[in-house]
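Recap slide: Thiol:disulfide interchange protein DsbD N-terminal domain-containing protein, sequence and predicted structure.
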Amino acid sequence: MKQALQLISAGLLSLAVPAQASSGSEPFVEIEVIDGGLSAQGTYIGALRVTLQDGWKTYWRSPGDSGIPPSFTWRGSRNVGEMSITWPTPEVIMSGGFQTIGYHNQLVLPVEITPQSSNKPVRLKGRMELGICKDVCVPAELKFDHQMDPEAGRHPAIAAALANRPYSASEAGVKAAKCTLSPTKYGMRVEARITMPSAGGTEVAVIEPGSQQIYAGDTTTQRTGGILTASTEFLPATTGAFALDRSQLRITVLGSHHAVDIQGCTAG
């Protein structure tokens, strides 16, 4: 079911859509690039700020039972070397019997850019494709084009989004993360056993494969004392065998108190 919904959504995104998804004169969603100036390391700090109409939502990089993750094209950017994106902690949203993961009303997505040349301006240009939902779901393609301002000061919206990132494993007191792999009829099942304090309430874990050639099914999550167990099945995006690298697996635990970002796991 999850694969079918994602394929349907992907098909919708292949249709021609405007830069702003709108109803009449009021856009459902808009995008802007905001500046946060230069860091002490000489990198540019900025963010893509996605503003939705009240009550609308969009999706996290792993959207849950339905929906599609945002995708980005940076074509037209200038003097951009390395780039890293920090995802703020998303919400777990129950809608129509499906569990989705995303954001309501606004998403500020911090971007750190290492310029190829420190003596030249940095231009951030491209587009973001995403799905947005309220009573209905609408695909959107949002274009942006902005020359980064090295003189800009610290931006409060960027600072708030960075502060809202998930804790690292060490910050959250994770003592161990061990993964068992077992073949299934069509793919590979991963069971992760994480020794960590509770993140609060009913925890939801997401396991990402670290490869675009593999996609994950539904993840089940269960806590017994100090151990959180998460299990999912990975399937190939195309026919043929595939390999999983435990060190590339990314486990995110979403709780009512905080979220935790665990990079990789060991055998066991």
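Helices lie at 2-13, 156-163.
The CA atoms of residues 37 and 153 lie 5 Å apart.
(End of recap.)
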